[in-house]
């Protein structure tokens, strides 16, 4: 059973920043947009029916600060009621801090994860083959491409060298080529939040967490804040074929975002986000512990470049979007037999943390074991209309 406290949620500076989230309110059988403040949790849905609407304002942090809202309770009690096992359905609980935005993700944005994708492709989804292939790929292209700018003349020269050696890969194309890999992670409103179960396809036998920074972007392409994310990944499915990307990435409860959205203000800026160090801890019931990290400062493409490649004249998002920025974390620590690498087991507790954004905590289950997703866009619109909020 997952337990959750305020200590497992808030950033190191507590509520000094502009923190916004979503809470399920049983009395209205629907979600509320909330401001998380030092003296409690405030429902601001009357002013901002959705997180998307708040992000569309000229200055979301200023707009939220100017909205008093209605106090609905203590953060401690709402957080404690969030994990599904011990939840009282008559009391409020936390949701993922995202609603109408499209859920997008960028892949292969760090050199080390790029190498692991090449290895997955060559291993054809078989973890037993990965170690030998990892040594060969590293011999061919090295293990530090962090200073190589994607799309540059130097990158294009490396591309040709690799083609000549029959070592080129589709993952190298998006890793060092001019065009970033940006895909739709999951359907709108399907994300799970902190304290909830995160899902793995039941047929997957080689998978891993992906600790990432998630940017919140308005319909105008303005980055307004950030949260933590787990872009749950099935290495065996994607390794078998890149055409299985949707099955590898999009399953029930496979998109985790939280714990809260921190809007940009004087306490947290885009430059702060660029310097984030994101930590990962996986603790299993078998005693296995895996630690990792991802440093946004080592990303190969600047966040503004990734956003610009996502939205513009060729693609619009009227309700805004969120964008997973990718990860440099690549799990190679053996869990069971030597050379088999890492894969999840049932009831793993995954904690993704950053000092400025708090902690995103999920228990791993198969997607068919997780709470089913039933509250979609139609249900949200109907609920808000019944509450006379739209």
Q: Which terms would index this structure?
A:
single chain, alpha+beta, 11-stranded mixed sheet, 5-stranded mixed sheet, 12 helices, 18 strands, globular
Give the gist of this structure.
This protein is an alpha+beta fold and 390 residues long. It contains twelve helices and 18 strands. The chain has helices spanning 51-55, 60-65, 75-80, 111-123, 130-141, 153-164, 170-176, 235-240, 245-249, 270-274, 303-308, 377-386, and strands at residues 18-25, 30-37, 40-43, 70-73, 93-95, 102-107, 181-186, 197-200, 207-208, 211-217, 223-231, 233-234, 255-263, 277-283, 289-295, 321-324, 349-354, 358-366.
Structure report:
The two termini are 38 Å apart. Helix 4 (111-123) crosses helix 5 and helix 4 (111-123) packs antiparallel against helix 7 (170-176). Helices cover 24% and strands 27% of the residues. Strand 1 (18-25) and strand 2 (30-37) form a beta hairpin. It is globular and about 65 Å long. The protein has helices at 51-55, 60-65, 75-80, 111-123, 130-141, 153-164, 170-176, 235-240, 245-249, 270-274, 303-308, 377-386, and strands at 18-25, 30-37, 40-43, 70-73, 93-95, 102-107, 181-186, 197-200, 207-208, 211-217, 223-231, 233-234, 255-263, 277-283, 289-295, 321-324, 349-354, 358-366. The strands form 3 sheets. Strands 1, 2, 3, 4, 5, 6, 7, 10, 11, 13 and 16 form an 11-stranded mixed β-sheet that branches. It has a 5-stranded mixed β-sheet with strand order 8-18-17-14-15, with no helix packed on it. Strands 9-12 form a two-stranded antiparallel ribbon. With 390 residues, it is α+β, with helices and mostly antiparallel strands. The chain is built from 12 helices and 18 strands. Residues 223-364 form the Fumarylacetoacetase-like C-terminal domain. One of its GO terms (molecular function) is hydrolase activity. Keywords: Hydrolase, Metal-binding. Pfam families: FAA_hydrolase. It comes from Bradyrhizobium yuanmingense.
